[in-house]
Amino acid sequence: GRGAASYGADATEIYQEGFRIPPSRIVRAGVPNELFLPLFEANIRVPRQTVADVRSQIAALSTGAGDVLRLVHRYGTETLLAATMELVAASERRMRANIARLPEGTFVADDIVDGDGLDDDPLPIRVAVTREGDTLVVDFTGTAPATRGPINCPIASTESAVYYAVTAILDPGIAPNDGTYRPIRVHAPEGTVLNPRMPSPVVGRNVFTHRVANVVMAALGQALPDRAVAAYYGNSNVHVFSAYGDDGRANVQFEIEVGGWGGRPGKDGPDCLSAGIHNLANNPVELVENGFPLRVLRYALRPDSGGAGRFRGGLGAERTVELLVDCEFGAQFDRVKYPAPGLHGGRPGATARLTVERDGVAEDLPGKASGVRLRRGDIVTVLTQGGGGLGDPAEREPAALARDLAQGKITPEAARLDYGYTTEDAR
Q: What's the rounded Cα separation, in Å, for the pair 309 and 390?
């Protein structure tokens, strides 16, 4: 695509976002399709990494297929299929029972996305969640129309985010399968940002999938106050460094930083932890430095980034790197303008921020950017979002504040301004 790692923040149609592959067999009956991988390899910047990743996925699927065949040989096809269908039916019964216990009525929530990167206008997302017997209707009427920029969210991604949010609030331990989702009806009007028409660009869809989860959880939190959680950081914070070596080969460093979760009933939000819509591991500094010519100067939790509350929002991260080569930079951040809101009197978390320092002068980078030219010696800092706080900050336990201060999660100034807490309170 036009941007490294497919993240071209200035794409205006899906054809610019990468090599589009309809459902195709890479391997048939154990025999590789000899045309597929060379065609795939010719259309990506870093084939030595990506093709190896595809091959490892093929190997993992082969192992899984072998395990399924062993179950068939042990129990027989009919027994295995019957057991599978019962797992699906059991999940459906369990989800319908959860929905039927919800109070009657319609519960609404909304939020704001910064913009699509091309137009600066804020984009609203609205949801109305209604119980109809043992069925849950999730309606996004009133959400922004599809955008020029690449943050549109295909309906399958919208549905997936809804399913996550509903199960997270109603029944986190349920076995996730088709039966779990049958009682959930999603309505996102065609032509909106949550159900765009072709050829809308969609690579940055996670800006909205996270926000879908935030608003659905907020609406369900009204129906079930004892399970209400404040908003989490709400974005896959993609940032990409890319450069070409003297041999003409591309080098791409693709990172997604996470942030803080919202305060929860009885607990603070987890700090800097991957939340539901994505599932990210923490890349060690040594691995990052080995993969791209840069030096990590700082990598830490971001003090004061969690929203104040009886139960504090989780902290975001801060990472500062020095570039050891000229390169290009791209990013797909959100909540740079509009923070994760607090709940029940809790304060919002900190917004995200990206900066570059050159010759001792620092300036902000846009949250959604593509092809930004950076120089060797530039210092780039990424600050991710904190989660919203839950409950009145005045009700926070002094022992919890003292612990936050001792661990450096909040500064003395924030303790005084946000909580009215002083060193005398500690005594």
A: 5
- Containing 223, the helix (H) or strand (E) segment is helix 206-223
**Distance from C-alpha of 56 to C-alpha of 34, rounded to nearest angstrom:** 17
pTM exceeding 0.90: yes
- 73's CB contacts (< 8 A; 6+ apart) are none
Amino acid at 138: V
E-strand stretches of 140-193: 184-187
Provide the 3-class DSSP secondary structure of residue 401: helix
Tell me the per-residue pLDDT of 90-146, one tens digit each, with 9 for 90 and over: 999 999 999 999 999 999 999 999 999 999 899 999 999 999 999 999 999 999 999
User: pLDDT tens, 27-49?
Assistant: 888 888 888 989 999 998 989 88
Own/partner pairs for 130-133, CB < 8 Å, 24+ apart? 130/105, 130/106, 131/99, 131/100, 131/102, 131/103, 131/104, 131/105, 131/223, 133/100
Cα(360)–Cα(131) distance, rounded to whole angstroms?
A: 57
What is the C-alpha separation between 189 and 25, in angstroms, rounded?
33
Q: Where are the alpha helices (DSSP H) in 24-129?
A: 36-41, 47-75, 77-100
- Contact of 418 with 412, CB cutoff 8 Å: no
Q: What phi and psi, each to the nearest 5 degrees, are found at residue 99?
A: -65, -40
What is the distance between the alpha carbons of residues 323 and 292, in angstroms, rounded to a whole number? 9
Q: Which helix (H) or strand (E) holds 132?
A: strand 123-132
- How far does Cα 176 stand from its chain's mean position? 19
First to last CA, the chain: 59
CB 358 within 8 A of CB 383: no
Q: Encoding tokens for residue 277?
A: 């819509």
Evaluated on CA atoms 55, 61, 64, 66, the torsion sign reads negative
